[in-house]
Amino acid sequence: MHKNRVNILGTEFDNYTEKQFHKYLSDDMDGRSNRFIVTPNPEIVLSARENQEFSSIINSADYVIPDGIGIIKGAKTLGTPMHERITGFDTLMFLIKAANRKQLKVYLLGAKPEVIEASAKRIERDFPEIDLVGYHDGYFKNDQEIVDDIVAKKPNIVLVALGSPKQEFFIDKYRYQNDAIWIGVGGSFDVFSGTKKRAPKIFQKLSLEWLYRLLKEPTRFGRMLAIPKYMRLVKAEKKNSEK
Ligand code: UDP
């Protein structure tokens, strides 16, 4: 693993095609390996740059996957192009479909109570072969109670939606108490449950999902300023490396 890592402002991405990545995950599920998947976007790359502990946690994960066109553009600008963007949401859907096919145990953690309830219902309805062993919203006070529940139920896959960096810190701290595929899925349950809509196909095709999210939730504007800042830093990095 990690033969072809591409470094973008300190975050080391795996350069896989989505097909390769899915094959690795499928083997991991079959072998019941303990794995940690992180799907950084430009905002996370910047926050890792300012938080050494977060950066080490990301770089020690088993899979660091380029979520967002900004990462692909950054890699190209730096002269180390990557195969393709692989979104956190698509990875979540792949894991859920595979869990359904393989009849695996799944645990959902995070998001608001009504969102996680609706996500659990959708799993029961649309993916009936999944053994949904437990779920809990993301507004708990006591980590240990949650971890004890996960350990008792032995899920093969733990989907964690606490937002970044909280979800990555949580997974890094507890993953070895239960061998599973652990992934931080950010706001994906909001979409999976139907509470929020994913951008229409045309926005996805044009890599304008960020614009759709901005139109829907203008309060995200502050967070989106991360993207131009990120591109400026990538260009500065490129210039520096040419000196
Ligand atoms: N969240 C949570 N517990 C917290 C903070 C956030 O469960 O203490 C959830 C929140 O409800 C949302 C997700 O984490 O479902 C984060 O969503 P956001 O859109 O910020 O994530 P992104 O995909 O942008 O990383």
UniProtKB/TrEMBL annotation:
InterPro entries: TagA_TarA, WecG_TagA_CpsF. Its EC number is 2.4.1.187. It is an enzyme of class 2 (transferase). Keywords: Cell wall biogenesis/degradation, Glycosyltransferase, Teichoic acid biosynthesis, Transferase. GO terms for biological process: cell wall organization; teichoic acid biosynthetic process. Pathway: Cell wall biogenesis; teichoic acid biosynthesis. It catalyses: UDP-N-acetyl-alpha-D-mannosamine + N-acetyl-alpha-D-glucosaminyl-di-trans,octa-cis-undecaprenyl diphosphate = N-acetyl-beta-D-mannosaminyl-(1->4)-N-acetyl-alpha-D-glucosaminyl di-trans,octa-cis-undecaprenyl diphosphate + UDP + H(+). It comes from the Bacteria. One of its GO terms (molecular function) is N-acetylglucosaminyldiphosphoundecaprenol N-acetyl-beta-D-mannosaminyltransferase activity. Belongs to the glycosyltransferase 26 family. TagA/TarA subfamily. PANTHER family: PTHR34136, UDP-N-ACETYL-D-MANNOSAMINURONIC ACID TRANSFERASE. Catalyzes the conversion of GlcNAc-PP-undecaprenol into ManNAc-GlcNAc-PP-undecaprenol, the first committed lipid intermediate in the de novo synthesis of teichoic acid. This is N-acetylglucosaminyldiphosphoundecaprenol N-acetyl-beta-D-mannosaminyltransferase. The lineage of its organism: Bacteria, Bacillati, Bacillota, Bacilli, Lactobacillales.
